[in-house]
Design goal:
With 246 residues, this protein is of the alpha+beta class. It is 33% helix and 34% strand. The longest helix has 23 residues. It starts with a strand and ends with a strand.
Length: 246
Protein backbone atom coordinates (compact mmCIF):
# COMPACT_ATOMS: atom_id res chain seq x y z
CA UNK A 1 0.00 0.00 0.00
CA UNK A 2 1.40 3.38 -0.99
CA UNK A 3 0.32 6.69 0.45
CA UNK A 4 -0.49 9.57 -1.87
CA UNK A 5 -0.83 13.27 -1.24
CA UNK A 6 -4.02 15.33 -1.37
CA UNK A 7 -2.79 17.02 -4.55
CA UNK A 8 -2.34 13.68 -6.31
CA UNK A 9 -5.93 12.76 -5.48
CA UNK A 10 -7.46 15.91 -6.91
CA UNK A 11 -5.16 15.91 -9.96
CA UNK A 12 -6.39 12.41 -10.74
CA UNK A 13 -10.02 13.56 -10.51
CA UNK A 14 -9.35 15.93 -13.42
CA UNK A 15 -7.63 13.40 -15.72
CA UNK A 16 -9.43 12.45 -18.95
CA UNK A 17 -9.16 8.70 -18.36
CA UNK A 18 -10.19 8.95 -14.72
CA UNK A 19 -13.49 7.99 -13.12
CA UNK A 20 -14.70 8.57 -9.56
CA UNK A 21 -16.38 6.22 -7.10
CA UNK A 22 -17.48 6.22 -3.46
CA UNK A 23 -18.22 3.62 -0.81
CA UNK A 24 -20.58 4.39 2.06
CA UNK A 25 -19.11 1.99 4.61
CA UNK A 26 -22.04 2.09 7.05
CA UNK A 27 -24.59 1.31 4.33
CA UNK A 28 -22.18 -0.95 2.38
CA UNK A 29 -23.16 1.00 -0.74
CA UNK A 30 -20.97 1.55 -3.80
CA UNK A 31 -21.58 4.50 -6.13
CA UNK A 32 -19.78 4.61 -9.47
CA UNK A 33 -19.23 7.56 -11.80
CA UNK A 34 -20.13 7.17 -15.48
CA UNK A 35 -16.49 7.01 -16.54
CA UNK A 36 -15.92 3.89 -14.43
CA UNK A 37 -18.16 1.82 -16.66
CA UNK A 38 -16.17 2.90 -19.74
CA UNK A 39 -12.87 2.04 -18.04
CA UNK A 40 -14.12 -1.42 -17.07
CA UNK A 41 -15.77 -1.89 -20.47
CA UNK A 42 -19.07 -2.98 -18.95
CA UNK A 43 -22.74 -2.14 -19.39
CA UNK A 44 -23.97 0.09 -16.56
CA UNK A 45 -27.14 -1.95 -16.14
CA UNK A 46 -25.39 -5.31 -16.11
CA UNK A 47 -22.50 -4.68 -13.73
CA UNK A 48 -22.66 -6.52 -10.41
CA UNK A 49 -21.60 -3.74 -8.02
CA UNK A 50 -21.04 -6.02 -5.05
CA UNK A 51 -17.48 -6.48 -3.77
CA UNK A 52 -17.30 -9.96 -5.28
CA UNK A 53 -18.81 -8.68 -8.51
CA UNK A 54 -16.09 -6.06 -8.87
CA UNK A 55 -13.46 -8.57 -7.81
CA UNK A 56 -14.40 -10.83 -10.73
CA UNK A 57 -13.15 -8.12 -13.09
CA UNK A 58 -9.71 -8.04 -11.44
CA UNK A 59 -6.92 -9.93 -13.20
CA UNK A 60 -6.53 -13.31 -11.41
CA UNK A 61 -2.86 -12.63 -10.68
CA UNK A 62 -3.76 -9.33 -8.97
CA UNK A 63 -6.74 -10.48 -6.88
CA UNK A 64 -4.63 -11.13 -3.78
CA UNK A 65 -2.96 -7.75 -4.15
CA UNK A 66 -6.34 -5.99 -4.32
CA UNK A 67 -7.93 -7.92 -1.45
CA UNK A 68 -4.94 -7.30 0.84
CA UNK A 69 -4.98 -3.63 -0.09
CA UNK A 70 -8.73 -3.36 0.59
CA UNK A 71 -8.29 -4.92 4.01
CA UNK A 72 -5.52 -2.50 4.91
CA UNK A 73 -7.67 0.49 3.92
CA UNK A 74 -10.64 -0.82 5.92
CA UNK A 75 -8.38 -1.26 8.95
CA UNK A 76 -7.03 2.29 8.70
CA UNK A 77 -7.34 4.26 11.91
CA UNK A 78 -7.40 7.79 10.54
CA UNK A 79 -8.14 9.74 7.32
CA UNK A 80 -5.47 9.30 4.69
CA UNK A 81 -4.76 8.89 0.95
CA UNK A 82 -3.70 5.57 -0.60
CA UNK A 83 -2.64 4.27 -3.99
CA UNK A 84 -2.66 0.91 -5.76
CA UNK A 85 -2.00 -0.18 -9.33
CA UNK A 86 -3.45 -3.40 -10.70
CA UNK A 87 -4.82 -5.05 -13.83
CA UNK A 88 -8.38 -5.86 -14.85
CA UNK A 89 -9.79 -8.07 -17.57
CA UNK A 90 -12.68 -6.54 -19.49
CA UNK A 91 -15.58 -8.78 -20.54
CA UNK A 92 -14.13 -8.83 -24.08
CA UNK A 93 -10.87 -10.29 -22.72
CA UNK A 94 -8.83 -7.08 -22.98
CA UNK A 95 -6.36 -6.51 -20.15
CA UNK A 96 -6.04 -2.95 -18.81
CA UNK A 97 -3.76 -1.45 -16.16
CA UNK A 98 -5.51 0.77 -13.62
CA UNK A 99 -4.20 3.22 -11.06
CA UNK A 100 -6.41 3.89 -8.04
CA UNK A 101 -6.08 6.67 -5.48
CA UNK A 102 -8.26 6.44 -2.36
CA UNK A 103 -9.27 8.94 0.31
CA UNK A 104 -10.72 7.64 3.59
CA UNK A 105 -13.21 9.62 5.66
CA UNK A 106 -14.17 9.14 9.34
CA UNK A 107 -17.26 10.13 11.34
CA UNK A 108 -17.46 11.93 14.68
CA UNK A 109 -16.88 8.61 16.48
CA UNK A 110 -13.61 8.08 14.60
CA UNK A 111 -15.14 5.25 12.60
CA UNK A 112 -14.40 4.76 8.90
CA UNK A 113 -17.47 6.13 7.14
CA UNK A 114 -16.59 6.77 3.49
CA UNK A 115 -13.98 5.84 0.91
CA UNK A 116 -13.69 8.11 -2.11
CA UNK A 117 -11.64 6.90 -5.03
CA UNK A 118 -10.38 7.78 -8.47
CA UNK A 119 -9.66 5.16 -11.09
CA UNK A 120 -7.32 5.93 -13.99
CA UNK A 121 -6.53 3.80 -17.04
CA UNK A 122 -2.73 3.97 -17.34
CA UNK A 123 -2.30 1.07 -19.79
CA UNK A 124 -0.75 3.05 -22.64
CA UNK A 125 1.50 4.97 -20.27
CA UNK A 126 2.87 1.78 -18.71
CA UNK A 127 3.33 0.09 -22.09
CA UNK A 128 5.22 3.12 -23.39
CA UNK A 129 7.41 3.05 -20.29
CA UNK A 130 8.23 -0.62 -20.96
CA UNK A 131 9.09 0.21 -24.57
CA UNK A 132 11.34 3.03 -23.36
CA UNK A 133 13.10 0.71 -20.92
CA UNK A 134 13.68 -1.86 -23.67
CA UNK A 135 14.96 0.88 -25.98
CA UNK A 136 17.34 2.12 -23.27
CA UNK A 137 18.53 -1.44 -22.67
CA UNK A 138 19.29 -1.88 -26.37
CA UNK A 139 21.09 1.46 -26.43
CA UNK A 140 23.08 0.51 -23.33
CA UNK A 141 24.07 -2.79 -24.93
CA UNK A 142 25.33 -1.02 -28.05
CA UNK A 143 27.02 1.65 -25.94
CA UNK A 144 28.88 -0.90 -23.82
CA UNK A 145 29.87 -3.29 -26.62
CA UNK A 146 30.83 -0.87 -29.39
CA UNK A 147 34.39 -1.00 -30.72
CA UNK A 148 34.12 2.75 -31.36
CA UNK A 149 34.66 5.34 -28.65
CA UNK A 150 31.20 6.59 -27.64
CA UNK A 151 30.89 9.74 -25.55
CA UNK A 152 27.81 11.69 -24.48
CA UNK A 153 27.83 15.32 -23.37
CA UNK A 154 25.06 17.43 -21.79
CA UNK A 155 24.00 20.92 -22.86
CA UNK A 156 26.63 22.44 -20.56
CA UNK A 157 29.33 20.48 -22.40
CA UNK A 158 29.91 18.22 -19.41
CA UNK A 159 30.74 14.57 -20.13
CA UNK A 160 27.89 12.31 -19.06
CA UNK A 161 28.84 9.02 -20.70
CA UNK A 162 32.04 7.19 -21.63
CA UNK A 163 31.87 3.66 -22.99
CA UNK A 164 34.54 0.99 -22.24
CA UNK A 165 36.39 1.66 -25.48
CA UNK A 166 36.63 5.36 -24.66
CA UNK A 167 38.03 4.59 -21.19
CA UNK A 168 40.56 2.28 -22.82
CA UNK A 169 41.71 4.77 -25.47
CA UNK A 170 41.78 7.89 -23.29
CA UNK A 171 43.12 6.20 -20.15
CA UNK A 172 40.68 7.77 -17.69
CA UNK A 173 38.59 6.23 -14.92
CA UNK A 174 34.94 7.25 -14.41
CA UNK A 175 35.80 9.40 -11.40
CA UNK A 176 38.42 11.24 -13.45
CA UNK A 177 36.34 12.05 -16.54
CA UNK A 178 32.57 12.04 -15.87
CA UNK A 179 31.22 15.61 -15.43
CA UNK A 180 34.43 17.10 -16.82
CA UNK A 181 34.23 19.62 -19.67
CA UNK A 182 34.56 18.01 -23.11
CA UNK A 183 37.46 20.39 -23.90
CA UNK A 184 39.77 18.18 -21.83
CA UNK A 185 39.68 15.61 -24.65
CA UNK A 186 40.77 17.98 -27.45
CA UNK A 187 44.44 18.60 -28.23
CA UNK A 188 43.62 21.68 -30.31
CA UNK A 189 40.96 24.24 -29.25
CA UNK A 190 40.32 24.92 -32.95
CA UNK A 191 39.08 21.34 -33.38
CA UNK A 192 36.69 21.74 -30.48
CA UNK A 193 35.42 25.01 -31.97
CA UNK A 194 34.73 23.56 -35.44
CA UNK A 195 32.84 20.61 -33.94
CA UNK A 196 30.78 22.95 -31.75
CA UNK A 197 29.97 25.27 -34.66
CA UNK A 198 28.91 22.39 -36.91
CA UNK A 199 26.62 21.00 -34.22
CA UNK A 200 25.07 24.44 -33.67
CA UNK A 201 24.57 25.19 -37.36
CA UNK A 202 23.83 21.75 -38.81
CA UNK A 203 23.10 19.56 -35.81
CA UNK A 204 25.90 17.17 -36.73
CA UNK A 205 29.63 16.90 -37.45
CA UNK A 206 31.74 14.41 -39.39
CA UNK A 207 35.49 14.80 -39.79
CA UNK A 208 38.97 14.36 -38.39
CA UNK A 209 40.06 15.87 -35.07
CA UNK A 210 42.94 15.40 -32.68
CA UNK A 211 42.32 14.11 -29.16
CA UNK A 212 44.65 13.83 -26.21
CA UNK A 213 44.96 10.97 -23.76
CA UNK A 214 45.32 11.31 -20.01
CA UNK A 215 49.07 10.69 -20.36
CA UNK A 216 49.40 13.59 -22.82
CA UNK A 217 49.71 11.50 -25.97
CA UNK A 218 47.99 13.06 -28.99
CA UNK A 219 46.09 10.85 -31.43
CA UNK A 220 43.87 11.48 -34.45
CA UNK A 221 40.31 10.20 -34.74
CA UNK A 222 37.49 10.15 -37.25
CA UNK A 223 34.59 11.72 -35.33
CA UNK A 224 30.88 11.55 -36.03
CA UNK A 225 28.79 13.67 -33.64
CA UNK A 226 25.16 14.75 -33.50
CA UNK A 227 22.69 16.43 -31.20
CA UNK A 228 20.93 14.22 -28.65
CA UNK A 229 17.20 14.61 -27.94
CA UNK A 230 14.77 13.22 -25.38
CA UNK A 231 11.39 11.68 -26.15
CA UNK A 232 9.72 15.10 -26.24
CA UNK A 233 12.13 16.52 -28.81
CA UNK A 234 14.16 18.59 -26.37
CA UNK A 235 17.91 18.71 -26.88
CA UNK A 236 19.66 17.13 -23.91
CA UNK A 237 23.20 17.20 -25.26
CA UNK A 238 25.30 15.54 -27.94
CA UNK A 239 26.68 12.11 -28.67
CA UNK A 240 29.91 11.36 -30.47
CA UNK A 241 31.32 8.20 -32.01
CA UNK A 242 34.98 8.08 -33.01
CA UNK A 243 37.61 5.65 -34.29
CA UNK A 244 41.33 6.11 -33.83
CA UNK A 245 43.22 6.66 -37.09
CA UNK A 246 46.42 4.70 -37.51
Amino acid sequence: MQHKSKNDFFKARKANLTGGWMVNVAENKLTLGEKIYQIFGVDKNKLDKSYNGILRLIHPEDVRLVTDFSQQVLNAGEPDYYRIEHRIIRPNGEVRILNEILKTGFDENDQLSTINGTLSDVTEKRLNEKKLIKSEERYRSIFECSLAMLITVDNDRKITGFNPEAYKKFGYTPDEIINKDISVLYENPDDELKVSQALTEKGKFYGKVKNIRKNGEVFAVQLSASKLYDGDGNQIGTVGSSLELK
